[in-house]
Amino acid sequence: MSGTFVGMPAFPTPAYPAFPEAAHEAVNNPTLRGNLRHATHTIRGKRAKAVAEVSDWAELREAGKQIKDHTLRHLDRYLVQVEESVTAAGGVVHWAADADEANRIVTRLVQETGESEVVKVKSMATQEIGLNEALEAEGIRAYETDLAELIVQLGKDRPSHILVPAIHRNRGEIRDIFAREMSEWGRPAPEGLTDTPAELAEAARLHLREKFLRAKVGVSGANFMVAETGTLVVVESEGNGRMCLTLPETLISVVGIEKIVPTWRDLEVFLQTLPRSSTAERMNPYTSMWTGTTDGDGPRTFHLVLLDNGRTDTLADEVGRQALRCIRCSACLNVCPVYERAGGHAYGSVYPGPIGAILSPQLRGTASEIDASLPYASSLCGACYEVCPVAIDIPEVLVHLRERVVQGGPVTRDGNKVVLRPAKGHAAERAAMRAARWAFARPGALRAGQRLASRTRRFHPRTLPGPGAAWSATRDLPAVPAEPFRDWWRRTRGENGENGDRGAAK
Ligand code: SF4
């Protein structure tokens, strides 16, 4: 973390260590692991109940997948439709190829209003581009208004969960943060603040209320954009989003280009699956929708910044593009055994957990230590795929990205085809795979090798030497059997498998 932190960490931070080192502290912190375990198990249990109530969940899941895939296949057309619809409704559309361009656009738009502060709705896209830092550099202060994001911002901390960014904080810590920091940012915490949820919520409400009433500029993201009407949709639970989206005179929304759904009918599917998958609610408490501007109702000026920042590069990858279906429900985090132990900070981006492990290396590339290590931050158990409401096969993408890291190969970066070199540090793995390919293509050699391994098994080491030592330090090497399977088969079933009792398992 930089010492000049002002809000959310910028996404393209190259200085994070590889995942195993980054996770080291969390894995050795029993309190943090206990908090994470309790929180993720509670949320996952509630989600399972909320999903089980819906008799056609499997169909909804498939429909969500199909809608997203269709939209991504025709993204060029739908983006143009969004631009036309938003413009016709009185909004102004801006296109941002990357984080720098998006930050420049938003900064200029705020400067043109003459304001020096903005209120923000929780938005992954603005965290991804490091908008708060970019605004601060130009003398504009951004106030996070979601309760958990407020805790993170006041605590000069980093979010560690998509839905519950302060999941790593307990109530005592939150009380201390409020008591210590609120006065630096506006209305101080009440005297004698305790750590009861009601008092903490009231302190946050009072602190934020004056900002809502004063701010002339609001900044948001959006969960969805409906192409046919140019309507943006924000779903939230606290009402802070509704305040940010309606009270300011100017509203600026930064939205990833993959957030489009073609029609309202399509939106209906996700308004059923998102709340149940994320907060385990049948319906989220606040669903705000706006279409351009309306005289006498809400902001007088509306700007939509359409953000690419690696998304079209991701779209070019036939296997990896399914990550763009993500609706940020966070269900995959709550079932992930790796996330539960490592926590969210180890993933080095605003996208932690399984979705972060496949999204960050695609949006940012695999050049940095952290991004090259993220595809390995998984046991490939498949729980993330099972719960994903848009059926993203995260294990499939993880394996695909591992292959890219180890083997290199063609990818699209900044719209250009480039060929990645194999990452350093995987030479032993590549050599082992080459040897396996050679042996499996030669049955005679494979048989001889298996017999040799069986006969010499008493001399085999219990741990691997060299780069394999880390692997065998926490695992038992499987014992080599006294007799290879093929020899056992031939001995017990005969050369053509005729001696065995094939009917036994009826
Ligand atoms: S990958 Fe699927 S489960 Fe994970 S956050 Fe995205 S939509 Fe939710």
Summarize the structure.
The chain is an alpha/beta fold and 506 residues long. 48% of the residues lie in helices and 11% in strands.
What does this structure look like?
The protein has 506 residues and is an alpha/beta fold. It contains 23 helices and twelve strands. It has helices at residues 19-27, 30-52, 57-73, 75-88, 99-113, 124-129, 131-137, 147-154, 171-185, 197-214, 240-246, 264-278, 311-315, 331-334, 337-342, 353-363, 369-373, 383-387, 394-407, 427-440, 443-455, 469-473, 485-493, and strands spanning 92-96, 117-120, 141-144, 217-220, 224-226, 231-236, 250-256, 260-261, 286-291, 301-307, 409-413, 416-420. The strands form three sheets. Strands 1-10-7-4-2-3 form a six-stranded parallel sheet, sandwiched between helices. A four-stranded mixed sheet has the order 8-5-6-9. Strand 11 (409-413) and strand 12 form a beta hairpin. The N and C termini lie far apart (62 Å). Bound molecules: iron/sulfur cluster (SF4). Iron/sulfur cluster binds at residues 277, 326-332, 355, 387-390, 392.
Give, in spatial order, the strands making up the sheet with the most strands. 1-10-7-4-2-3
Bound molecules: iron/sulfur cluster
Instruction: Give the fraction of residues assigned to helices.
Output: 40-55%
Largest β-sheet summary? 6 strands, parallel
So how many helices? 23
